[in-house]
Description:
alpha/beta; 2-enoyl-CoA Hydratase, Chain A, domain 1; 4-stranded mixed sheet
Amino acid sequence: MATYEHVLYETDAPIATVTLNRPAQMNALSRPLEMELHAALDEAAEDSAVRAIIVTGAGPAFSAGYDLGGDRPEQERRRDVLDRWVQTDWRHAQQMLHIMELPKPVIAAVNGWALGGGFWISLACDITIASEQATFGQPEVRMISNSSFLFPALVGWKNAHRYALTGDHFDAQEALRIGAVNEVVPHEQLMERARAMAQRLALVPPDSVRMNKLLTIKGLQAMGLRQGLEVGRFISAIVSSMTDAPDVEALYEVQRTEGMRAFLQQRDGPFIPEPGGPRSTPAG
């Protein structure tokens, strides 16, 4: 068994549990965490004793999305910006496909915040069970960023655009209504329910599970899912490179000079109260 720093990997045959483990950062997706998550998924896929995989998060979040803590160069050539985002967005698309194409079923146990890239992980899993405390969203679109084609592919154009074009938060019940999750359970029952589902999957012959999962994923890809994600990769790179628009540049200037808290307040403050989640109630 490999040793990991940013995820916890546990096996209790027939279940492997991978826990994103940066709780102080709300399990923000750094590059090392991404690498370890996918390495742990591969380790579980190769373990003959494992029949199902659960992915969850430590602390109050499943994952708050991609880590925004890195410095943004003040001077960077346009071609370098574009090249960096082409590589980044290609990796993101490949990682979602990696989860979907694993030979074993993956259950997302969403225990809290699932934003941005964390939300995408939950979408890519075969079955998603949400705590009643879960909150979903892609607030990064408010600073010029991309959604994922996987979102409208699962929930439909109208439902996706309600949230992909605003970055608004939505709660677990709304996620259930639009089809982004399979079920919502009391918070304290989340892992129990996820393990029960994994045990149920383990009752089915593994070749049957593998082939029926393959049938679904390859069928969706034949219908255009892979092409949609590939097109999304290039559009996402262009979107992510459009950071010199006056309103967006002002946001990044706040991040550079006043820090992350001020940046998030500037970006998200005008949208509070949110439609769902902990920030749906006006302060005071």
